[in-house]
Amino acid sequence: MYHQPPYGVNYYYPYPGYEMRGAEEEVYRPDDAEDAPAGPPPAQMPAMPATFGAPVQGDQLRNQMCRCLGNWGVIGLNAPGPFGRDFWFYATEIRKNGVAGYTWRNGRRQRVSYRYQQIRNFICYG
């Protein structure tokens, strides 16, 4: 009786206005990273190595993208999307199950995000 919370007070739920975040929203972003790229990617797509067609495991992919934060790289998707199958990508956030960043389209940057299951490979050129 003495160790019970007062009637009407629920200590197990967050207070009103509190936003709960799931594990998906855990983000790795270095302190000095600027969110958006300062300029467009290189004008010409580099020659891809033969290994770029082979899929990479999620942990390896995450490590490659972490090392490339704040630089342009080429991302390869398993299936073509609105930007094609292989295109320039500027990673800004590395999440548990995916990555977010920018791509370049019609002279403007565009924010995009992908789950690791959608990504075939990634190469950094920064």
Tell me what the structure shows.
With 126 residues, this protein is mostly beta strands. The protein has a domain at 54-126: Ribosome maturation factor RimP, C-terminal domain (SH3 type barrels), CATH 2.30.30. The protein contains one helix and six strands. It has one helix at 58-67, and strands at residues 27-28, 72-81, 84-95, 98-105, 108-115, 119-124. Strands 1, 2, 3, 4, 5 and 6 form a six-stranded antiparallel β-sheet that branches. The longest helix has 10 residues, at 58-67. The radius of gyration is 20 Å and the shape is globular. Mean pLDDT is 78; it is low at 9-25.
CATH class of the domain at 54-126: Mainly Beta
Overall radius of gyration? 20 Å
- The share of residues in helices is under 10%
| Overall spatial form | globular
Summed up, the helix count is: 1
Strand content: 35-45%
| Strand-pairing-aware structural class | mainly beta
Low-pLDDT residue spans: 9-25
**N-to-C SSE string, H for helix and E for strand:** EHEEEEE
